[in-house]
Amino acid sequence: MANEFITIRETLKRNRKDLMQRANVVATGIGYKFRAGQKTPNLAIICSVSRKLADSRLSSRDLVPATVDGTPTDVVQSGIIRALQAPTDRLRPAPGGASIGHRDITAGTLGCLVEKGGQKYILSNNHVLANSNQAQIGDPILQPGPYDGGKFPDDHIADLEDFVPINITGIPSECPVATTTVNFLNGVAKLLGSNVQLRAIDVQQLENLVDAAIARPLNPEDVTDQILQIGTIQGSISGELGMAVKKSGRTTQLTTGEIEQVDVSANVQYGEGQIAMFTDQLMAGAMSQGGDSGSAVLDEANRLVGLLFAGSDTTTVINRIENVFSELGVGL
Amino acid sequence: MPPSLTAAKKKHEARLLQLPGVVSVGIGSDERGREAIVIGIADSNPKIRARLPANLEGYPVILRIVGPIKVH
User: Fold this and answer.
1) CA A240, A246, A250 angle in degrees (round to 5)?
2) pTM of the complete model
3) What ipTM describes this predicted complex?
């Protein structure tokens, strides 16, 4: 067996160049021969082809011979072999999972394509496409995002179409001055025999459901409904406790997790001292890092579950896709 | 009739989220698979733990160290 392998390796080495020159052959190697879909115990020289054609459609010069120096061959269709696409590259068409961003941010992730009024839009977060409420409608969106080398106008892929404003407030009731003041006033109130007690409640915490925005591609050919390492979306589904989920993002690419909490209300930091309160969120374990914001979150059957936007060292926070759709007035 | 788990959580979450060190309140499950109210805290500071209840309206409360949640 070992000797046979060495012999075949020598045979392949002698004939590789000749085999690779034949039409459609993209790779050669050594493997077990398949016959009628079944693996046989016999080693063979495997020629991978971009397209398997009937012998009659190939010239004799391009036909892979049945044997090479006594070693059987096998032809398998592998398709064209490409280098794996890096999500931080400039990609056209740009798939879900690729780096994207408003020109004034670092970089986030292109989630997926959504539809509104017969037009396809790029879906991601407000803080990725609309610079956390700071952008103007029509601002240029770059792919890849600026941090990954995206420049205007060369990498201008879309224009900001719409975003759901986020209510961002200060840090709730952690202000020591406010707490001290309230304690002092309550002391005064007690001295005055008042029943009224003051509490350190800051400006009404406004609730947010989504961190979402859409951008209109300059050219529909520049985007694709494929998601890197995942494929195409097969509809949508409401996220539930215990559901297995996955995402493809600019930084950590394909990761998987499980929905560990639903109906989550959370305080999310938007920079130093900037907090936004979100309700009705899904929470999964750690499956994201900075730059993954905007990733589409799918279940095992590729059904769209949510839009990833935040996380900690141990958790990932996800907007429910039904809330994203209703807040933006979009669908698949 | 006692409030549902969701109602119990809703009743208390605004107050809980105002407490320093509390970052999230959600519905998850305990180690036995029972639904529970899960309070996410920024760190293991015992002062935070001491302020939080072991149960709400009769439903179990689980504390989970989540760390600060930031936009990604």
Assistant:
1) 135
2) 0.75
3) 0.93
